[in-house]
Structures are given as C-alpha cells and as structure tokens.
Specification:
By secondary structure, the chain is an alpha/beta fold. The strands form five sheets. A seven-stranded mixed sheet has the order 1-2-6-5-3-4-7, with helices on both faces. A five-stranded antiparallel sheet has the order 16-22-21-20-19, covered by helices on one side. Strand 1 and strand 2 form a beta hairpin. Helix 1 crosses helix 4. The longest helix has 25 residues. The chain starts with a strand and ends with a helix.
C-alpha cells in the first residue's frame, strides 16, 4: 500500500487498487474534501483555485481529474500548466485566488505523484487545517454544484515570467553585480519544470548556463533527490573546470543544491547557511535596529545558528516540516529561514521554499565577494550530519521510548573545555539533545515503524558515533522492556 494521506496532502504511486495507490477515485475524493474545506473556511471571497504541476509522466492525468473535480465543486480553475511549487504559491496571491493545488511528489521517483494543498495566502495548510481536510474526506460529507453553478476553466502561462520578475525585484538581488561577474554555470533540472523556468532567470541575470537533463519528460535520468549519491553526472561535468558553479534542483524546484567549481559538493545543509549569511550581512551593513532572526528545523545544521549569532541575531528551531518552519518564522520575525535539505524561505518574496530566490541571492553574494565557490564554502563553520534509523516492531510504544530518552538527559550537564555545560533538551518534535559541541535528534516516522536518528558533530565519524551511542540506549530500553514484560 503506497497511498499516504497526511495533513500536508495525499501522495502515492500511480496505478493499482482503489485505496492502495494514487488513482482517479481517490484523487476525486481528496480534491472534493479540499474544496469543501476552502468553501467552509470562508477566508476568501474568490471562487478560483490555482492548479500547477511538475513534469511527471502522470501529471496530465492527475491534472485533468483535479481540474474536473474542482469545476464540479463550483470552483473556477486557473490552470498555470507546468509550474514549480514556488511559482504556484505565488500565483495564488498574484491572482487573489482562494487556494491552490500543486501536483508534484517533490523528490520522489517517477512512479509517485501527489497533491500539495495551499491556502489563500499561497502557503501550505496548517496541521489543524490538514486534519480537517482528512476528516471531511473520511466522512465523505460532499455536495457538488448543480449545472448552473459549475466552475469555469481557464489557462494562464504568464506566471513563470511573473515569478522571475518578482525575484529580480528583490532588494538584495544585485543583478548588476551578477551580470558583471559573467558567471558560467552547469545546471541539472532532472527532466522537470526547472528546465523551463531557470533559463528565463539566467537570461535576466546575464548568466551563461549549460543544462543537463533539461527536457521535461518526467523520465528522470537519475534519482531526483538532490543528494551527492545521485549527482555523479553533474559532479563529473563540473570537474572539467569550465564552470564557476553547479546548480541542482528537484522536480518541483523548491530544493536547491550547489556544487563547487572543482566538482565537490557545497553541501545541501549549507545552501541555507550561505544565503542566510549574505542576507544578514546586507542587513548589518544597513545599520538600524532590525532583529536579524533566523529559523530552521531541528534536524538542520548548527552552522545557521553560528552564522546568525555572528551578526547579533537570534536563531530559533522549529519542528520538521515547511509549515512548522514558516509558522516559527512569523512568530519570531525571522528575516530568512528554511530547511537543511536545500530549502530557502525568504519572507520578502513569500513564505515558501524557493530555489529561484536561493539561486539569485547566492549568485549576488558570490559576485560581491569575488571569490570561488569552494572559497566561500570554507568561510562557514564545518559540521557533519549522520543519518541513521532504528527499526521497530509495529507494537513498540515509540512515544514512551522518546519520553525515557528525554528524561535521561533533561537537567544534566557535561564537562566541556574545563567547565560544566548544560545539556539542552527540546521535545517539540521527537527529542533533540543539544550538547555544547554536537547534537542528536530522534523523531518517529509518520509512515513506518522507525525512529529517525540525525546527529551532528565536527567530523562525520564523531557524528555517526554519537548517533549510534543514542541508538544503543534505545536498544537497551527495548531489551529491558521486553524482559520486564
């Protein structure tokens, strides 16, 4: 069974039995529930919903089902065609629509697709709103429009240009400096919509770009998640020495990874760190009393905290998930935030991860500093994150285990540089244990019986050792609990 219904939307593999996969009947049910939620919420007087899709093979089929269902619910459909996730988010506010649906499974392989749901602000639904949509779908409490009140369908392909224009208008995007730098870049758009919109951005910035996997076929040439293990092609191309920078996006262009001029990964965790450093430096040069606060999720690198504090700002951590990050950003007035997976959120543009914004700000930073990408990378604190998992039985009480781990470390201290330093414990999303020079984060999966264990330290060996040490604590708990039973 691959059909996953969650507060953030519905996703699954295409084809198969109803209720087990992402198929037309389940798409109709979920879109109907979403439209019902939008209508009941009454947050917008608009009767229009935006629909955009990435380049997946199944996108056309899903689009037709989604659009037809919305029309049947009495909503007008603004179909913006091939579109990135951030383009669709911006289209909602630019068109003053009641909401939006993005047809994309993000970094998942080609057999997957999904529906991401937006409110009238072009932002992902909150957890409470997502639960309400799921409840409506479960109850099948639906009512469709009669023949005189069906929605109206129209297409508008202008939003790519409008998105690019909005990026060019950002105060910290120094287009003149980028043009003078005359950058040459190599770009992997993984056979999806990045191959349509990014050439338009580079043309406006005066950047010479060579594209890999540009054709929008949906037949991804490699695993589409922008991780080092999947990027041998562009990394080899970068080693030719013909480019200043390598750029990789995922299929819906909300995640962003950079590659140094010598073919080494810049590090997905450092996409946000580098852009945040540039934004904070710009604000610091302007003077004034602006609070230079930043936010990332609990599983993201500590380097963002270090960079933030360098400029006198305050760093805050949010639970994992884009909507949790944006909620925290609004709460603390963050000037930039995002996630360690290469997601940059810049409120001056909008509250959503946006690779175009990240690219433009990064190139502006690089142009002003006048250095190579590898030299820029060397200016940031060096950390390494290890990612492990603990497999559990379906009957394991994960919450009880995490509560015990929290109790073990709460209120404790460790010897650090000749003094006793407190161990900080954060339980807003699983349990994160912050030591003075490293951290480990345990959180349960929403889709399978496992605990994800992320740990960070000054070396990969130390990070992995820390993660495995905490994992052993959990294993010992399970063994003790089993004997007690």
């Amino acid at each position: 069974m691959t059909l996953i219904k969650s507060i953030s939307g519905i996703r699954g593999t295409i084809g198969g039995a109803t209720g087990d996969t992402l198929n037309p009947l389940d798409i109709v049910k979920f879109v109907t529930a979403y439209a019902t939620f939008i209508r009941r919420g009454g947050k917008s007087s608009s009767r229009q919903i935006v629909v955009g899709r990435d380049g997946r093979i199944s996108g056309q089929m899903v689009r037709q089902v989604v659009c037809g269902t919305l029309l049947g619910m009495g909503y007008d459909v603004l179909d913006i065609g091939y579109a990135t996730t951030p383009t669709t988010e911006l289209a909602v506010t630019m068109s003053q629509s009641a909401g939006g649906i993005i047809i994309t499974a993000s970094h998942n392989p080609k057999q997957w697709n999904a529906l991401k749901l937006l409110n009238n602000e072009g932002e992902f639904l909150t957890a409470a709103d997502g639960k309400e949509v799921l409840a409506i779908a479960e109850a099948e409490d639906f009512e469709y429009a009669d023949v005189d009140h069906l929605g109206v369908y129209r297409q508008d392909n202008s939003f790519d240009e409008r998105h690019v224009e909005s990026v060019m208008n950002l105060k910290m995007v120094d287009a003149d400096a980028v043009r003078k730098a005359a950058f040459t870049v190599c770009v992997d758009t993984i056979n999806s919509v990045g191959g349509i919109i990014l050439p338009k951005l580079f043309e406006r910035l005066g950047v010479k770009a060579t594209f890999l996997n540009q054709e929008v076929t949906g037949n991804f040439s490699h695993n589409p998640e922008p991780l080092e293990k999947n990027l041998k092609g562009i990394m080899d191309e970068m080693r030719s020495g013909r480019y200043d920078l390598g750029i990789v996006v995922d299929p819906d262009v909300d995640r962003l990874a950079f590659i140094c001029e010598d073919g080494r990964m810049f590090g997905e965790e450092y996409t946000l760190v580098s852009v945040a450093d540039y934004v904070l430096s710009c604000l610091a040069s302007q003077g004034g009393n602006m609070a230079m606060n930043t936010v990332s999720n609990l599983s993201s690198t500590r380097a963002l905290r270090d960079v933030t504090e360098k400029y006198g700002g305050t760093y805050s951590a949010a639970a994992v998930g884009e909507v949790n990050v944006t909620t925290k950003m609004k709460e603390v007035g963050a000037v930039i935030g995002g996630e360690g997976n290469g997601g940059v959120i810049f409120p001056e543009s909008h509250y959503g991860r946006d690779a175009l914004v990240g690219i433009a700000l990064f190139l502006s930073s690089l142009a002003k500093k006048g250095c190579k990408v590898s030299q820029l990378r060397a200016t940031f604190p060096e950390y390494f994150i290890a990612k492990n998992r603990i497999d559990l039985t379906p009957s394991t009480d994960v919450d009880a285990i995490l509560e015990k781990v929290k109790a073990m470390y709460k209120g404790t201290s460790v010897d650090y540089e000749g003094r006793q330093a407190a161990v900080a414990v954060n339980d807003i999303d699983g349990v994160k244990i912050d030591f003075p020079d490293c951290w480990v984060h345990l959180r349960k999966s929403n889709t399978e019986p496992i605990i994800r264990v992320y740990s960070e330290a000054a070396t990969m060996e130390e990070a992995d050792l820390l993660g495995k040490k905490i994992m052993q604590v959990v294993y010992d708990m399970q063994t003790t609990g089993s004997r007690a039973g």
